[in-house]
Write a structure and sequence with these properties.
Layout lengths: L1 H4 L1 H16 L3 H38 L15 H11 L10 H10 L2 H7 L16 H9 L3 H10 L3 H32 L4 H6 L6 H4 L1 H14 L11 H4 L9 H26 L10 H20 L7 H33 L1
Helix pairs in contact: 2-3, 3-14, 5-8, 6-7, 6-14, 8-9, 9-12, 9-16, 12-14, 12-16, 14-15
C-alpha cells in the first residue's frame, strides 16, 4: 500500500536520479524537472477533457433514457477519438476583418489558467508540483486570468454577437469570483494557513464541509458559474447570441474552448475536494485514489446539474450573485470570525 500511495513520488525520484547521474548541475536538473511536471499537468488536462466529454454524453444519455455514444468501440469508448479527428480535419474559418493574431491566440491562452492552477493543487501527500505557502492565493490569482481569453475571443472576432458574449463572460466571471474568494477566506480563517497541503492535514478528524456547509454551498454554486456550466452558460446564449464568443470559431479552435472548460471544471472540483472534502485523506485506498474519487463525484454532480436545470436569464444570474451569494458569504465570514475568536479564547 505504501508503494501505491507513493508511486508517483518514486517515479519523479527516479527521473531526478537519472538526470543527476548524467551529470547535469542542480539548476539544470530543476529546470528539467519543472518541464516534466508541466508535461504531466498537460497530460492530466488532456486525459480529463477526453474522458469527461465521453462521460458526460453517456451520463446525459442515461438521464434522458437514450444510449449515448455506443457505436465506436466497446461502450462507445472511441467516439471522443473520432470527434477529435473530425475537428482536426475541419476547415479553420477566420472572419475577414478579424484580428487574426488574437483570434488564433485566444483558444491557446484559455488553457493557461487551469494548467497554472493544477501545479499548486496536491493530488496526494507530497504529490504536488509546487507546494506554495500561499497556494490558495496563487490559485485564486491565476484562475482570475480566465476572463482575458474569453474577452480576446469576443473582441478579435469583430462580431457584435461575439462581443456581447465576451462581455457577458467577463461580467459573470468577475462577479462570481467574489463569493469564491469569500468562501476560501472562511476556510483560511479556520485553518490559519494558505498552504493547500496544510489545509488538507487539518481535516484529519473532520472535513471542513461539516464545519462550513454554507461556505461549501456558495463555493460550489459560484464555481459552476465560473466555469460557464449550465444553468450559468449565459456567455454562449445560443438562443439570443448565436453562440456568444464562440460564434466565429470552428474546428479545433472551437474544441479547445470546450476542452479547457472540462479542465477548469476539474480544477474547481480539485479545489473543492482540497478545501472542504479532506483532499487525499481516506482509509484503505492510496491517497491519490481518494482524491480522484472525490473529484469524480463532484464532476458527476456538476454534469447532473447541467442536464437537469434550464438556463436562467442573465439579469437573474447577476441578481442571484449580488443579492444572495455575496451577502450570504459576508455573513458567513462574520460568523466564522466570531466562532474562531470564541474557540481560540475559551476552548
Amino acid at each position: 500500500m505504501e508503494f501505491l500511495d507513493n508511486i508517483f513520488l518514486y517515479g519523479t525520484s527516479i527521473i531526478r536520479s537519472i538526470i543527476t547521474w548524467i551529470g547535469f548541475d542542480p539548476a539544470i536538473t530543476n529546470m528539467i524537472m519543472a518541464a516534466v511536471y508541466t508535461v504531466a499537468i498537460l497530460v492530466i488536462c488532456t486525459l480529463v477533457a477526453l474522458f469527461y466529454v465521453l462521460y458526460e454524453r453517456k451520463l446525459a444519455g442515461f438521464i434522458q433514457y437514450r444510449p449515448g455514444p455506443n457505436k465506436l468501440g466497446p461502450f462507445g469508448l472511441f467516439q471522443t477519438v473520432a470527434d477529435a479527428v473530425k475537428l482536426l480535419t475541419k476547415e479553420d474559418i477566420v472572419p475577414r476583418n478579424a484580428d487574426k493574431a488574437l483570434h488564433f491566440l485566444a483558444p491557446l491562452f484559455v488553457f493557461i489558467p487551469p494548467i497554472l492552477a493544477l501545479g499548486a493543487i496536491p493530488f496526494g501527500n507530497k504529490l504536488v508540483a509546487v507546494d506554495l505557502n500561499i497556494g490558495m492565493l496563487y490559485i485564486l490569482a491565476v484562475t482570475s486570468l480566465s476572463t482575458i481569453p474569453f474577452f480576446l475571443a469576443g473582441w478579435s472576432s469583430n462580431n457584435k454577437y461575439t462581443m456581447l458574449g465576451a462581455m457577458r463572460a467577463v461580467s459573470q466571471k468577475i462577479s462570481y469570483e467574489i463569493p469564491v474568494i469569500f468562501s476560501v477566506l472562511a476556510i483560511t480563517m479556520i485553518a490559519g494557513s494558505l498552504n493547500m497541503s496544510e489545509v488538507v492535514g487539518m481535516q484529519g478528524k473532520l472535513w471542513f464541509v461539516f464545519v462550513q456547509p454554507l461556505s461549501f454551498l456558495i463555493f460550489f454554486i459560484a464555481g459552476i458559474a465560473e466555469t460557464n456550466r449550465a444553468p450559468f452558460d449565459l456567455p454562449e446564449g445560443e438562443s439570443e447570441l448565436t453562440a456568444g464568443y464562440l460564434t466565429e470559431y470552428s474546428g479545433m479552435k472551437w474544441a479547445l474552448f470546450f476542452l479547457a472548460e472540462y479542465c477548469s471544471m476539474f480544477v474547481f472540483s480539485a479545489m473543492a475536494t482540497t478545501l472542504f472534502l479532506g483532499g487525499w485523506l481516506g482509509p484503505v485506498l492510496p491517497g491519490w485514489m481518494w482524491f480522484v474519487l472525490k473529484v469524480h463525484v463532484l464532476m458527476t454532480v456538476i454534469i447532473w446539474i447541467r442536464w437537469t436545470f434550464p438556463r436562467i436569464r442573465v439579469d437573474k444570474l447577476l441578481e442571484f450573485n449580488w443579492k444572495i451569494l455575496i451577502p450570504a458569504s459576508i455573513l458567513n465570514i462574520f460568523a466564522t470570525g466570531i466562532g474562531v475568536y470564541l474557540f481560540n479564547n475559551f476552548f
